[in-house]
Input
Amino acid sequence: MKRTTTATFGALAALTLALPAQAEISDDVLKIGVLNDQSGLYTDLAGPGSVEAARMAVEDFGGTVNDKEIEILSADHQNKPDVGSSIVREWIDEEGVDVIVDVPTSSVALAVNEITREKDTALLVNGGGTTRLTNDDCSPTTVHYAYDTFSLAKGTGQAIVQEGGDSWFFITADYAFGHSLEQDTAAVVEENGGEVLDTIRHPLDTSDFSSYLLQAQGSGAKVIGLANAGSDTTNAIKQANEFGIVQGGQSLAALLMFITDVHALGLETAQGLQLTTGFLWNMNDDTKAFAERFAERRDGQYPTMVHAGVYSSVSHYLKAVAEIDDDGGEAAVSQMKQMPVDDFFAPNGEVREDGRMVHDMYLVEVKSPDESEGDWDYYNLVATIPGDEAYKPLSDSTCSLVN
Amino acid sequence: MTAAKENTQTMSTGQKISNALSDRRVHLAGFGVGILLIAIAPYLGLYPIYLMKLLCFALFAFAFNLLLGFVGLLSFGHAAFFGMASYISAHTIKVWGFTPELGVAAGTLVACVLGLAFGSLAIRQRGIYFAMITLALAQMVYFFALQAPFTHGEDGIQGVPRGELFGFIDLSQTMNLYYFVMAVFILGFFIIYRAIHSPFGQILKAVRENESRVTSLGYNVTALKVGAFTLSATITGLAGATKAVVFQSATLTDVHWSMSGEVVLMTLLGGMGTVLGPLFGAGIIVTLQDYLAGMGSWVTVITGTIFVVCVLTFRRGVVGELTRMLRIHS
Output
């Protein structure tokens, strides 16, 4: 009898120990880790700007969540998956970081995605673009927020094919993001009756595009699709200008361009380019208010869709954590999925079960220098693409979380 | 008179220490303490993943030191063995479902074959030409890794499951993994230690000092060098394959030429040609990289500066200088 009692008590004690920690904010502090490129080709579009955006979101939230301090850490992943994943591993193991934000460079985002899934930590991807994050590699702890390659393809690709650009040549950055963007755009081109003549891939962070551009010129394609980002895109456009590609009758399609890229190119070079973005800073008073506050804190740099997305995603995450008083990755993300997003970035946004945040995207055309009314006034809105058209329908998703 | 007496006394103590340093029993005792330290390090509050990274790089540097310090061959292509082994081990574990020990063995084997091939080709040249050939061959491996479908180019192989060692030890438990890495490290270190202190190692040192004389004694110097090169490549592969299991990934960083440079730096900083030097060198570099990670590309500038300081002021490396000081001053 006595024996059984001891055994029962033992078992009970073991059970208590084995129970998961109570739903609460771990270590009495909520730590946000902003991971991005702070020294390389994606510094302008994400970089310190994203850290500032996260800081603004925390300040606007009041600096604490359910009386627990909020702390922000940041690090440079140098666009290398191994560097990014070891930083994240250490952040989670040693620092107790609860949420990872931004992560441009899809290869790094995919690597981090594996770790946050394993360690039940939330991941809010803004900078990274690959649709793999919400399809084959989707995770219950990941939200893909600002944009993805499907929405870019849908916006820019479709518009260009419908205007008669029906034969394409792709110059693609040779990593997850480039592949994903090229694949999604090619699908849109073919769906709309166009054809893809050929594809050439270049390493990430290339400075000399001449051989790629000459091949593209020789292919006779009407449209040269640039499936790359950051300074890769701006370098390619500048050099295409030098080769007189546009004057020769071919057109360039920059499939992913940020306002900072347009700023770097200058309107003289960039005018007339069509591109898709998730955020227009001068759309309405709310967006203007955010952009001007941001610019003030960033020495005049206006926010890209990544910066605005970081702000919005961090706010949404904090609201979710406050609601359930739990900073576990899966718990917080599933709460984010239940609450609608409603702010200047995504007035009618929702986080779907595959982790995709669905919101309107905008097809814009870069203004000519005469049209521009001042600094950073670069875009003419061509069309608004409603969220349910801009993003891949759930019925086509290959994500295991979607039944 | 007294001064002279003191002098003789100092000499004899110096001699004693010098003898002690090369005494095998002292070595064994030292290793015992070392192993104990490594075994308890995670309980002293050090981050286990950091320690595992350190052990992998220390093993890499040991293997490199075998070639540079004991045969006098400066290879600039060791990243090829390190990186290729990590790709093979990651791929076999992730895609083919190998258990970790088989994956690591497969990676090591590939590095061994690659080392034999590269060694046979490169060993025909000396000095800078040898270094250049190894670099060229390693660059070929790099571009292979960039383009081959199974390595996934810039993305690398991610999310490699840690799996179960021998089918029943769960390596997803950090401490289990730690002791696995420690065992691999000790195995690799012991092989190198034995090689250095065997007749084979003695002849290698003789080759370093005077190659023609060794030839005239009737040894096949080319075969000896190829043997040493292959052994070094194999242990390098063992380190790379283990690193893939620890970090659950294999990427281009491991196979990039800067990795070859990093191991040269570790070896020189720690003390070329000393048994324990590479461990210290790896420790310094890995620690710097870890603690300065937040500073991004400044890490390279700082390690570069340290390298310059090392070459200018203590050319024998940390361990080399320490041993010398012990010999002179005591």
User: Anything to note?
Assistant: The CA atoms of residues 164 and 261 of chain B lie 34 Å apart. Confidence is low (pLDDT under 50) at residues 1-9 of chain B. Residues 221-247 of chain B form the longest helix (27 residues). Chain B touches chain A at residues 47, 49-50, 53, 146, 153-156, 158-159, 247-249, 251-254, 290, 293-297 (CB under 8 Å).
